[in-house]
Protein 1
Amino acid sequence: MDPKPRSSLCYEGLTVMTPNRAEALQLAALDEPGGVFPDEAVCRRIHERYRPEHLVVTMGADSMLLSKEGRVLERMPTVAREVFDVSGAGDTVIAALTVAMAAGLPLPQAARFANVAAGVVVGKLGTAVATPDELLAHARAMEESVDL
């Protein structure tokens, strides 16, 4: 679920929660930090309050923060090659993450897949989709750039 902190919905017991940076701080009842985002505190507080099994905080162009049961797993850098429009990027992350986890991938692999999908859609103008061919091409380009 992509939570909205001002909503009256019950967020307890979710499998995956995907707030963005600002929403995560609100859900954790923390003020916007002046410097480094408080990964550990945010993950711990959200888990204590809402008990999601997994937490994926989308940090915009910076990264995605992955947590399981309140413990930080990793901070994954984004993979967009070019950014033209971020419209729909968060929705793409949620959709791709859900598909990957429903297919049985563990959170880190599912998040990598979601990261690739978001990298494709932000490279297009307006809200867009990522086709299977585009996902494969983007993933291959990422692998090649790492090998250099």
Protein 2
Amino acid sequence: MKKDRVQKLLLDQLRRVPILEVACEKANVSRMSVNRWRKDDKEFDKAVTEAMNEGDAFLNDLTESQLISLIKDKHWPAISFWLRTRNPKFKEKIEISGQITHREQRELTPEEIELRKEALRLALPKSAKAEEEKEKNN
């Protein structure tokens, strides 16, 4: 059956390049058809997801291999990238400095006290609100 052959070809393409649009073009099938097949057939949907995961792993291995080749060729950007992303000693760091000053506190007005109570009441989970209501009624 043509559909089975096209689906197999699509899955093979996704294992090489996990980009659905590219795989659809190479398998000569529309993305709409693939999406419909995935919706109608959960096994096919699972197979597409697995093929894309395999494709991701394949490309990760390929790019890591290329990066290592560049490092062996003393390509400074590749060396720097590897060190910054893989070695904690060379990770980019952010330094934050500041100063905390303590301002004189003032007493809350009665209106501010009520607003704070209401905000706390609204922030409590439902179970705590029920307990609070129960305590009020007793």
Protein 3
Amino acid sequence: MNFTIKDHKIEIFGADKTGKLPFIILIGDRDEAEEVYEIVRTRCDQEFILIAIHAKDWNSELSPWYCDPVFKGTEAFAGKADDFLTLIINEILPQLNEYINTSPSYYALCGYSLAGLFALYSAYRCDSFQKIVSASGSLWYPGFIEMVTKEKISKEINTVYLSLGDSEAKTRNQLMARVQDNSEKIAAYLSQNINTVLELNEGNHFNDPELRIAKGIAYILNT
């Protein structure tokens, strides 16, 4: 099922199911959701609804605050994540009742790369979600680890799944090279109070994104 809300494409998988089920919100900008949904179904017996919300402007809507470009010739990160999160919570999620036959047992927020950063950031800005998946999340983002350790995560969060490719930190870009160290520190910090796991996958940032997202979703569904 596909439709549009506020110029954002929405895809729903499993909308015909009944009963109270987990609503898994997947933030992305590509058509990966159907493949993710099918992979999760092979790894998890639990029924769920997958809702894919397409970001219109990746660097703007998913970045928590302004950041200069990380590569020459690329655009800056505008830091409009709060606006996008408000749109999701106040306008997109309430309208889902028109398209889905069931109601949520809980909401989980998931994403890959910068969308993974957005997912974890959102856990510090609202109480709408119980579980977070940040697959190969851009946790190198300047100032993010400081925010994680200084501010309070939502009291509703009970599970955080982080993942990373074991070659992602092997880059000449000094900022992005921090990603594994930051991910490990964030996982260790969050695990003091929340069920948190950091899974290392083989390969770089671009290896098997659909599989990495699906592994995270299967984990939170089974936890």
Protein 4
Amino acid sequence: MPTSETAAGVPAEKERLRRAMKALRAAYWADAAARRNESNAQDPTAAGGESLARAAAALRAAADARICAAVCSLPRFAAAKTVFLYNAFGSEAGTSAIAARAKAEGKAVFYPRVRGREMELVRDEGQAFARGPFGIMEPAGPAEHVLPQFCVLPLLAADARFHRLGYGGGYYDRALAAWGDAAFKAGIGYDFQLLGTVPAEAHDVLTDALVTDARVLVRR
């Protein structure tokens, strides 16, 4: 954790990193597809327009599948009866396959819904989702007071000390602090999002695991 001498600059450092990682994540798969096409010396028409978009989508889908397989292989996932998932937005790592696997195993799946400065949990029972205040699809239906046993968390960046950089609203940190150690916290993202170090503050909640398309780190 940062010392008192450096703590004052951490919020600004986080914001700079957020901007950089948002830009990197938004462009990553198209760039990866272009590099692969160039490396394979394919016909130039295969690297442009919809062909490049399809190649990027395929690379990202394969990465999401590897993340899903790794998450679902964790013993704490297998043991959990309640699973909390974020609904992927934009260039975030996808969670739909994890949700499908959890439901197939008879687990109760919950998604967040923003209310003021807090998140409430809504069980996924196949109901409609509507766009929330941040543009993310949120479930309709009654909120439930439940302690999820396994939590899948979004991230912009993370490091091997299990620090997770979120979007700055504090919604997840507040919820995770309230849930305590009973909730196993797995941050997921693509391997390029795992950095050498991520700026952190005393109130930041550590993840228990970090899962990417290339590796799994477990703290406890």
